[in-house]
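Record type: ASSEMBLY
Status: queued
Input:
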Amino acid sequence: MRASVDTDPRDGVLAQLSAGLRGPRRVRADLLTELRDGLDDATDDLEASGLGAAQARRRAAAEFGDPVALARELQAELTGAQARRTALAVALISPLMEVAWRWGYPALMRDYAMRGGRPSGSALLAQLNTIQEIAVWIVAPLLLLAYGLTRRRTVALRRVTELIGLLAVGLLSVNLLTSGLMTALNPDLRDALRGNLPGLILQFGSVAGLAFLVLSTARTVRLLAFAARPVPQRE
Amino acid sequence: MRADDLRGRLDAMILSAVEHRPLHGYAVMEELRARSGGQLELPTGTVYPALRRLERAHEIAGEWQTVGGRKRRTYAITDSGRRLLESEREAWADYSRLMGVIIGDAL
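Status: finished
Output:
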């Protein structure tokens, strides 16, 4: 059987790079296109210097470097890109949700807010709400700071990316716990939203915002775990 | 010259390669090889993480352009990149002078 006689060794390099890279779809696709272009350019150059097509492809693949090591370096950039998105989203959306919670709900769903949506009737909810407020106003500026730091070449990207993941997970945990409890312990939400279009919009916006933040944070944490996986041992 | 010796200076080398005109990744490597008289032995893929790192730091700006009938991601130096290159040149001159004083006679 003729095995791999016609296989393009550059495809093997690209397959290894592709397997080693995860992250924001457009950034990843751009990166892989650029790497493919680099291999094509190297091949053209080698052919122009007199090598045959097959030999030029082999040489271009061999001279490209270790795809596993290269993918790990590039993955740091992809993970950083996702972390920056998350940092910005959490830092901007969380305070907006807090403003909506503090002023929007009492204004648009007065009865609901008075009976527990705002924790006027429960010491536990009042405490949780205070924790949430403090957490938002402390963590949001820290995330903005971390966002700025990832743009500087002098800081260790991996460390700041991990910090962003940690801050985002911490803040969202507090948000989910408090907002979940407040909704669960309050039986009046459905009544407050019936025929109340502004209230519905506010509620939908809050849930959508929270869902977006959870997804973005989960992506960052997943990429951090992927980037931290052990290096495959070479034979 | 060994690859490990060069990696620490790769960012400055890339900035100098794109100092006067925008280049795509492989052209950057070719420019560096040409300047070194063929002594540069870095794997060609090495340049891509460095380009992305410099772009993130706004030292260079990347954009997709058509070069020689093909779409290529090309990189141009920014004002911030020029300042960084200048400071890298000064740092290298200082280092070079210092090493010349310390070990120059032994060479």
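Annotation: Chain A has two domains: 9-65, 77-227.
Annotation: The mean pLDDT of chain A is 84.
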